[in-house]
Amino acid sequence: MLEIISFIPAAMSRDEQYQDLLSNISAMVADETDWISVMATTVCELHHKFDAFNWTGIYRVTEPGILKIGPYQGTHGCLTIPFEKGVCGASARSKKTQLVPDVSKRSDHIACSATTQSEIVIPICTPDGTLIGVLDVDSDEINAFDDTDVKGLEQITTFLGVHYASIIA
Fold first, then answer.
1. How far apart are CA 27 and CA 98, in angstroms?
2. Of 55, 93, 137, 146, which has the fewest CB atoms closer than 10 Å, so is most exposed?
3. From CA 158, how far away is CA 56, in angstroms rounded?
4. What is the CATH number of domain 34-168?
């Protein structure tokens, strides 16, 4: 009698999930020259990969000191965010990742959604350091993001900055 042995792959770590996600996004947009398509694909892939991601979107630099909403998944977001306002503005001003474990403890948090409990915002820069936008991810859970998310999302935004630079070159 033939014995059937079933192999169920071990669950991927979150580091591995981010690497898999980056590989998938990279493959999907490899030949894409439309920046909106690249942003939309990236946001969709991110939003559906992790259960804790309640709102996922990119705010684009449209003029000096101004972020405008770009492709996103989730409920409505803020349409315009000046660099001097909110967590997205702080990330844009500093060109540094903003990790907010509990938005109620951050005085500059803009409440686009009453359900948001934690947030992470990562700048998207070209290789020469030009800020082109920020990736904003919100969660309805407190402490939803950690250093694994910082590392994984920074790798994705680095990829986006390089890809954008290749489009406009």
1. 28
2. 146
3. 17
4. 3.30.450.40
